[in-house]
C-alpha cells in the first residue's frame, strides 16, 4: 500500500501528491528565504502524515508546539541535562511517540548542543526499535553550518556530526531526514547532498539560486524563476513527488504557529505632546526596584550525582554525627586506582562494545559511587575519549610517545563515535601490526556490520587521513601519510577471535 500525502495543487491543476514511503527512503530538502512559506510547507507535511508515521521535530523557534493540541505530539523543552535528553530520545524511539523538541529561548550554542545530543540519542537507539521516523529539522543551517562561527568547535562538531548521521546513515535506522533552510549557501554541502527530494521556494541571492538550480538540474537562466515564486509556491523534484521539476502551491493547514507575521495597524491618536509622553517619567518608576533575572545555568547530571554521593554532616545533631563511622580520606593515587577499576568493570561486560556511551557512562558513575569515589571523576566527553583510547589498544608506553600525541591531533578531524576506530588503526600502524579486519573495526565501533566498517575506512580515506592499498594476496594495508607509517598486511575477512570465559 502506498501512502500518498496531498501537498497542494500542481502546475496542471491536479493534486501534488508526495509518496511517503519513497520519502522515508530518500529524504527531503526544503529551501526558501524568510517569508517564502517553508514553515507552512513543513506544517502541511506533518499534518497530512501524522496518522501514517512517527514524527520528531527539531524546532528552534517553538513554532510547531501547537501540533500537540491537535495531533498529540509531546513537547520536550530543550533546557535539560545530557542524560535526560539521551533517555528521552531512547524512549521516544522505543514507544514510537511523536514529539517536538522546542529550543525556543536558548542561544545558538545551546540549541546546537541540545539538538546534537537528541539526534544522537535517536540514532543510537537499539536495533529492536528502528521503526520509521520522520525527523524534521527547521532552520537546518543553524545545526549544520557550512563554516565555523562563534560557537565552540566541540559544539559545532557535535551538531554537524549528528546532522550528518541523520542524512547520511539514518535510513538504515529508520530515520528519514526532512531539513529546511533559508540559505543553501550556509548549509553544509555533505548534509544537503544526501537529499534526493527537493522543494525550492522563493530566493533572491545569486549564490543560493545557483545551488538550487544545480540541485534541480536547471541552467542558470532557469534559476531566475526562483525570484518570482509567490509565497507558498515551491518547485518540486525527486522520486517522492516528480521526476521533472514541478511547480506546487502548498495547500492549507489546520493548525497555526504561536507567532505570526506582523500586520499593519494604524497608530493611536495622541492627545498630548508625544515628547512629553515619552520623556516625562512616572513617579512610580523611582520606587520600583530594578530586578534583572539571570537564568540559572542547568546543572550537569555528573554534579548532581557527585553531590548525592557526599555525606551530609552539616546540621546533623552532635550525637548522631559522632556515632557515624568516619570515612578514610583517599589519596590521589587511591582515588585514581578506584576510578580505573570502575572503568575496567564497566568495559569487562560481554556487551560493553555494543552499548551506547551514555549507558556506559551512567554505569561508570554508579560504580564510582559504590567504590566511595566522591566528586566528579570526569565528564562524558572525557569518558568518551578514554573509551576510544581503551578500545584502540594503546598501552601506557605508546601514549607517552610523540607519535601518539600527533595521532590524537589527527583524530580531531573525525566525529567522536569514529575516534576509537581511527585510533585502533593508528596503533596498528605505529606498532607495525596487521591492519585490523572488518570484524575488529565493526566491534570497535559497536556494530556487527562488516559493510559499515568498510564505509568507515572509505570515509577516513576521503578525509585524507589514510591511504588504503593491498599486497599480492589481497590483504589490506592502511598507510598514514601524516604519521609516515603504515600497518602490516591484514586479512580484511578474518573473523574476530571469540573471548573464552575465565576459568572459575
Question: In summary, what is this structure?
Answer:
With 504 residues, the chain is of the alpha/beta class. It has helices at 20-26, 38-49, 67-71, 82-95, 108-123, 153-169, 189-192, 206-216, 274-279, 283-287, 301-309, 318-323, 332-347, 357-370, 380-392, 396-399, 402-411, 419-431, 438-445, 450-462, and strands spanning 4-10, 15-19, 28-31, 54-59, 74-77, 99-102, 133-137, 175-181, 197-200, 233-238, 242-250, 467-470, 476-480, 485-486. It is globular, with a radius of gyration of 28 Å.
Helices and strands in order:
Elements: E1 4-10, E2 15-19, H1 20-26, E3 28-31, H2 38-49, E4 54-59, H3 67-71, E5 74-77, H4 82-95, E6 99-102, H5 108-123, E7 133-137, H6 153-169, E8 175-181, H7 189-192, E9 197-200, H8 206-216, E10 233-238, E11 242-250, H9 274-279, H10 283-287, H11 301-309, H12 318-323, H13 332-347, H14 357-370, H15 380-392, H16 396-399, H17 402-411, H18 419-431, H19 438-445, H20 450-462, E12 467-470, E13 476-480, E14 485-486
Region (Disordered): 309-329, 484-504
Protein name: ATP-binding protein
GO molecular function, one term: ATP binding
Amino acid at each position: 500500500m502506498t501512502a500518498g500525502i496531498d501537498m497542494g495543487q500542481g502546475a496542471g491543476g491536479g493534486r501534488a501528491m508526495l509518496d511517503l514511503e519513497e520519502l522515508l527512503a530518500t529524504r527531503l530538502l526544503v529551501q526558501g528565504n524568510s517569508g517564502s512559506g517553508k514553515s507552512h510547507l513543513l506544517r502541511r507535511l506533518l499534518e497530512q502524515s501524522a496518522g501514517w508515521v512517527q514524527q520528531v521535530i527539531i524546532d528552534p523557534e517553538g513554532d510547531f508546539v501547537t501540533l500537540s493540541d491537535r495531533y498529540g505530539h509531546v513537547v520536550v523543552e530543550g533546557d535539560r541535562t545530557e542524560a535526560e535528553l539521551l533517555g528521552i530520545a531512547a524512549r521516544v524511539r522505543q514507544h514510537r511517540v511523536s514529539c517536538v523538541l522546542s529550543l525556543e529561548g536558548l542561544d545558538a550554542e545551546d540549541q546546537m548542543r541540545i539538538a546534537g545530543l537528541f539526534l544522537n540519542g535517536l540514532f543510537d537507539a537499539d536495533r529492536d526499535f528502528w521503526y520509521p521516523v520522520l525527523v524534521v529539522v527547521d532552520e537546518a543551517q543553524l545545526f549544520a553550518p557550512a563554516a565555523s562561527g562563534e560557537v565552540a568547535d566541540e559544539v559545532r562538531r557535535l551538531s554537524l556530526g549528528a546532522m550528518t548521521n541523520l542524512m547520511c546513515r539514518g535510513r538504515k535506522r529508520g530515520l528519514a531526514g526532512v531539513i529546511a533552510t533559508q540559505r543553501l549557501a550556509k548549509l553544509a554541502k555533505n548534509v544537503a547532498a544526501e537529499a534526493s527530494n527537493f522543494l525550492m521556494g522563493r530566493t533572491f541571492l545569486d549564490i543560493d539560486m545557483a545551488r538550487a538550480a544545480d540541485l534541480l538540474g536547471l541552467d542558470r537562466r532557469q534559476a531566475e524563476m526562483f525570484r518570482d515564486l509567490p509565497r507558498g509556491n515551491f518547485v518540486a523534484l525527486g522520486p517522492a513527488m516528480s521526476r521533472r521539476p514541478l511547480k506546487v502551491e502548498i495547500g492549507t493547514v489546520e493548525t497555526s504557529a504561536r507567532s505570526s507575521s506582523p500586520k499593519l495597524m494604524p497608530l493611536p491618536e495622541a492627545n498630548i505632546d508625544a515628547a512629553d509622553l515619552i520623556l516625562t517619567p512616572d513617579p512610580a518608576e523611582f520606587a520600583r526596584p530594578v530586578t534583572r533575572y539571570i537564568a540559572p545555568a542547568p546543572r550537569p547530571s555528573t554534579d548532581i550525582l557527585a553531590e548525592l554521593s557526599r555525606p551530609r554532616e552539616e546540621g546533623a545533631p552532635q550525637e548522631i554525627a559522632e556515632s557515624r563511622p568516619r570515612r578514610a580520606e583517599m589519596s590521589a593515587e587511591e582515588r585514581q586506582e578506584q576510578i580505573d577499576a570502575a572503568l575496567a568493570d564497566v568495559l569487562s561486560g560481554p556487551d560493553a562494545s555494543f552499548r551506547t556511551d551514555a549507558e556506559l557512562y551512567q554505569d561508570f558513575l554508579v560504580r564510582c559511587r559504590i567504590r566511595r569515589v566522591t566528586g566528579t571523576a570526569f565528564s562524558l566527553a572525557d569518558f568518551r575519549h578514554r573509551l576510544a583510547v581503551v578500545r584502540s589498544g594503546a598501552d601506557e608506553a605508546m601514549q607517552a610517545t610523540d607519535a601518539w600525541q600527533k595521532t590524537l591531533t589527527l583524530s580531531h578531524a573525525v566525529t567522536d563515535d569514529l575516534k576509537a576506530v581511527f585510533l585502533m588503526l593508528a596503533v596498528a600502524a605505529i606498532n607495525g601490526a596487521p591492519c585490523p579486519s572488518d570484524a575488529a573495526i565493526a566491534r570497535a565501533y559497536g556494530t556487527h556490520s562488516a559493510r559499515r566498517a568498510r564505509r568507515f575506512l572509505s570515509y577516513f580515506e576521503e578525509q585524507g587521513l589514510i591511504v588504503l592499498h593491498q599486497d599480492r594476496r589481497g590483504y589490506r594495508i592502511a598507510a598514514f601519510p601524516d604519521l609516515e607509517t603504515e600497518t602490516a598486511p591484514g586479512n580484511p575477512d578474518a573473523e574476530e577471535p571469540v573471548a573464552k570465559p575465565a576459568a572459575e
